[in-house]
Protein 1
Amino acid sequence: MNAPIQEPDPNEFRSKVRRWLEENVPPPSPERLPITPIEVMTFGQRDYLQEWQRKCYKAGLVGTDIPVEYGGYGHKGLQSIANQEMKRAKVPYLINIVGLSMAVPTILRHGTEEQKRKFIPGCLSGEEIWCQGFSEPGAGSDLANQRTMAKKDGDDWILNGHKVWTSLGHFAKWMILLTRTSSEHKYEGLTYFLCPIEGQSGVTVRPLVKITGETGFNEVLFEDARIPDAYRLDEVGKGWTVAMTTLTAERGASEGAGSGGGAGDILGATAKLVELARNSWSGDTLAADNPVTRDAIVQRSIAAEGLRQSARRARVSSLCDHPMRLPLQQKLAVTEFDQENARLGVQIAGAHSTLYKRDSRAPSEGHWPLAYLNSYGNTIAAGTNEIQRNILGERVLGLPKSK
Amino acid sequence: MSSISKAPQDFGFGEDEVMLRDVAHRFLDARLPTDKLRRLVAERPETVYDGGATAPWDKALWSEIVELGWTGLAIDQEQGGADISLVGIAGIVEEVGRYALPSPLIPTLSASMMLRAAGTEAANRIMTQIASEGTPTGLAITNARGSWEPGDAPLTAVADGDGLILSGSAYFVQDAFKVDVLLVSAKLGNKLLLCGVRTDAKGVHLKQDHIHDLTRDQASVHFDEVRIEPEAIISRDAASVFQATWPRLMVLIAADLCGAAEWLLQTTVEYAKERVQFDRPIGFFQAVKHPLVNAMMKIDEARSLVYHACAELDAGSENAVTAAHMAKSSASDAAAFISDRSIQLHGGIGFTWEHALHIYFKRNMHNQALMGDGVYHRQKLADLVIGPISVI
Ligand SMILES: Cc1cc2nc3c(=O)[nH]c(=O)nc-3n(C[C@H](O)[C@H](O)[C@H](O)COP(=O)(O)OP(=O)(O)OC[C@H]3O[C@@H](n4cnc5c(N)ncnc54)[C@H](O)[C@@H]3O)c2cc1C
């Protein structure tokens, strides 16, 4: 195993990362991987991805900008370069996405010195997987409507409640948890914890099945589960403020502590549609010859180039009217882009779009209907796209808040 | 489709380009505020639409624009121009769109680009004039069907000694009543010619089109055996000149559309914050808020694609034509979307002549169709992205 890349110069760093990625192409996964890391299902997938994250971490591609005391490499502004290069190299994604992109930025901002030293290193290496316990049956878009309750008991808190849609919960050692500690105030009654999950008494993790027929997320039940007060993040009653840090990080406003490759091969998406159209029929016409289909594919390729160029423009401040105008569009634009692509893929596949994963005649092993079904996960998760539109309308255009 | 791009990360939009754009913004903001624009072009509908008057424009403002050097933006320094990158020009043209400036600027920039691509002595002479005197110059290259493809040149030429005689009619000539010189395309045998003709030359007749856009004029131009001197022949083999210039012309119009679209967005957003119904500013309602966000995203896509196309053209990338088609398609559709929503979300006041919205709505409609709408460009792109339809 080579030493981590320790190179402060951004250009040098980039070329070294690029070389490392070329020389360390991971072996193919023994099991097919889901489209995004939040859907990882099996222990086989987990082991493979955990090994990959460990390797990237050892090479200095994860935790690049995190202080050395917390297990990182102490650079400035290099994580985004590592992220770009991992995307470019189309290597697998990093499994600990909740940890890297949500827990770490939140702990760095709100954690005590002790908490930072305890929680961040295992998160970077991927040894300790994190999940997010925000959503509940009654608290989705209206996240502050929490019912889960933590009551102080000596140096511990005793937790009761029900979390849903908990991605990666079945592998997680830790959960970033938003819970109620007082029923008096909707927002000021919330507190944030770093909550142990794995092997804890009073904690039950049960898989939920998605519309694809696959598992991928969970519900988590707390029945008199105990959390030491030392795992409380920031003050009692400050949970909403802390949760906002997490959501801001989640919505892509920061580079987090690493991202890995995987989803987001925007230009490749159009190439796949063209390929599909060249091999699919709409009645007696080759799909690639159907003018309506051609127009639809070209619309996708314009959208793809638009996304790519907007990402480029977001770094040229003189060409952006408002600093958050492009960054806050990212989640919305990318998830709808993916959904439209998948929808079009299904349309192009025609009769063959009826064939699902296990069918030997299914184009791309059933990728298109699976991707289409799955795409709704991303237009709903991490703040639904309707909520994203509220945020853009309010924060960027300055329209009145709908709450 | 991974592109071979030599274009820089920042699209080549450096300090000079920022300065030019900001100057343009401040200048137009001072000289052509919306009230003035409305008084200038939309004072009385009966004059423009029924009286047959030529669309008004502010000649004093044009003199100032010439002073600012905008007519020389796309001309080399040897001919007295400023030789600004296309991305820099796009920044200015966006401002032109934002203020819906009626002027022969876009035709003059378009003509300059065509002349520069020709690069002949005759071309250089005209460019020197444009740069030093600001001679407004336009293009007469479109036939009765509305096609400007080289094979569809509107005029025919016959040899006349060392010169030519031109006959026929060019259509959809933009701002014909504002320009002094027209670049015209004609067929001589199987060759495509490009010549410079003064609009007041003997045998040249302008007939005004009745158009809905209030911020320009348009005409058909009839050539009744017009004699062309040899020194006015810009190119005797202009097909490659056209090929090199098309993408730039598309991008100019796309930039104008982006600027006008952004004006419509901001104007509608402001209205949605002020107009109160059901005890709330209407921007509170998501049927108002969300379409405005969608419009913003479409405009942002178009703007990114415009800068991209400019940078690719400036760098001479092989991807430039694709990028230009994408820019014009995206900008046409983005502008159409916000045009539509801006009127609707203003309610009754948006439907009146009194409000300035319709000025932008119509300018956008006109620009959407000019040099091909979204469907046109996507058909071209389909051949580039997917390959031609197979012949069975
Ligand atoms: C694949 C996936 C993974 C997830 N992973 C996690 C996880 O790991 N941890 C976690 O805590 N949560 C997770 N979630 C939950 C996710 O954050 C919520 O589903 C989401 O916030 C929406 O909440 P909801 O499902 O209760 O829908 P609701 O909030 O009930 O929304 C229903 C519909 O109403 C619309 N709506 C609601 N409010 C408004 C409004 N103000 N304006 C306009 N429209 C509105 C919504 O957009 C939606 O269309 C995940 C979800 C998915 C799909």
Protein 2
Amino acid sequence: MFTWIGQFLSSSIGKKTTMALTGLLLVGFLIAHLAGNLLLYKDPEAFEAYARKLHDLGPFLYVLELGLLALFVGHIAFAVRTIVENRKARHSKYAVQADRGGKTLASATMPLTGTIVLLFLFWHLIDFRFDGGFKGLFADGASGAGAADVVWNTLGGTAHMAVYLLGIAALTLHLSHAIQSAFQTLGLRHPKWTPLIERGGVALAVLLGLGFASIPFAAAIR
Amino acid sequence: MSANEHDETIDLTLKVWRQRSGGAPGQFETHEMKGVSVHSSFLEMMDVLNATLVRAGKEPVVFDHDCREGICGSCSMVINGQAHGAEPETATCQLHMRKFRSGETVFVEPWRADSFPVIRDLMVDRSAFDRVMSAGGYVSANTGSPPDANATPISREDSDQAMDAAACIGCGACVAACPNSSAMLFVGAKVSHLARLPQGQPERERRVVAMVQAMDSEGFGNCTNHYECSKACPKGIGVDVIAQLNRDYIKATVVRSN
Ligand code: HEM
Ligand code: FES
């Protein structure tokens, strides 16, 4: 009954479709994540109220987190599979290789930028999810006051600045290829829309990058 | 890039890939080519090299060729790192030596992809494409005789797009140029060509599924949308055929109930 799913997921196009869908959903998450973070600039209470609301979701927050984890695992699992298969598809390398302008810095470094994003993610989760300063702030109906200060204090140092900027730069480069690439993978190509999608994808990648990068900068100059 | 107007000949240093068989190790062999006519094609220059080699009692360089007019797709050579050389939309047989500078060093390699094993020197086995085609790259329903084709109404846009896809000569430059050795441009062209014509509709879904299955089992890589394929294609086939292939495959496997 479900064999078609296995067949689809083991086909080259099925693998790429899964990467494109999980990738686009992750972009959706990033937009929401950044929107929440930007509340830091409004006032500390706005950010704390937002964080409070997330925590009030209770078990439902775990469901959301599991969903997010599934997106990452799915995206990365198929990324690893396709990278390995693509390496295997050409054992003997060209002595001379001259690209014709299709390949870009972003498209050629997808495995690298993806890996940097993943490593950054571990660091980021340790900062704010596992044993970060938020611990206790939201326990047992605590108000969450001081959450904004935790962000500023955590991100203030040079080590954090360097790691965050590297991670965010890799993410920006990854997305500058990824967003339009996902549309092509899903078969959504159109003479009128594709030029907009290509430019819009890069614009969204840069906006997300600038938005996220602004936070460690703001922390540094406080 | 072109030779001096007054010079009718150029001198080149040719580095040609020599490999006795698929399993054997290969290496470059250097040949100084003196007085190459700028009016000759790349293959004619290779013919001159081979004539010289034969006269010297050596093995000629094995390379694939047939029509020498850019329609059969057999002249597979990677020239200075580019499939069919640097000229846009030009097969190796149509590439003229006036496009090279005197004194230049020119590297000539075979298509490199595990799905296209080297037979000898520059000649590779492209039968993987034949197997993909026999999986579904045809119409088996009776579509009538040639006059009947004119009786089937088809929009100008559809016929133009089908013709663009049908321009594929199956040379394999897309695979050779793809950093992932993916065959998506070739398979996309073949699927789109028939998907855009009324005659292709009855078998459209079965075709795309079977051809993608055959493509995957031949060990071609996964497309990551670099688009080097389209830039290398001697017929200038666009990556819209890859989008069509993706769309048709997703529809046929995920959306359709059967
Ligand atoms: C927030 C994190 C991430 C987002 C939003 C994201 C998004 C995307 C999108 C939309 C694509 C395009 C898929 C397509 O072309 O069809 C993609 C491709 C890819 N991603 Fe990610 N990705 C993320 C993290 C990662 C991570 C952690 C890796 C890990 C190793 C990774 C590796 C790749 C690779 C190798 C590709 C394939 C390149 C290609 O197909 O062009 N990504 N990503
Ligand atoms: S020899 Fe036929 S296309 Fe070049």
